[in-house]
Amino acid sequence: MVHYPQRSRSSKGVTKVESRPTLVFITVATASRVSWLANEEVHSTLRDIWREADRWETGYYVVMPDHVHLFAWPGNIEHDLDEWVQYWKSLTTKRLGRSVRRWQGCSFHHTIRSFESAEAKRSYVLQNPVRRGLVERPEDWPFQGEIFRNREWW
Prior knowledge:
Largest sheet: 5 strands, antiparallel
Strand order of the largest sheet: 6-3-5-4-7
Number of domains: 1
Mean pLDDT: 84
Shape: globular
Number of strands: 7
Distance between the termini: 35 Å
CATH superfamily: Transposase IS200-like
Helix content: 25-40%
């Protein structure tokens, strides 16, 4: 059996540290912040694509009208985070079949370094629809959920 060395970097800026699991907070926006994401068709499409993808796994997420917040960690195969984000953005656009639905060219990601940081980001994500005045309580926002549960963090 051939033994390959472990990668120390999953993506640009995402460093694996042996003493803690890798968890990344990601924000992806629409081009020009056009509001087209917060509807059942897009929500269902994103959930399906995130379930199918095995390179990174999606945990808690919130789909807002013009951006998406999510937590992700390396899945079955080590793969560049930026390529994975580009993959699901492209696949979402193709499945929805409308060229007016465009994504911003880049995404923002931040490596979570502690449980406290993860909880703070999670609270921020879940409160986002309330802060925007879309609902009164986080649990009332229909375009949120969790695809995979990362037992190492929550």
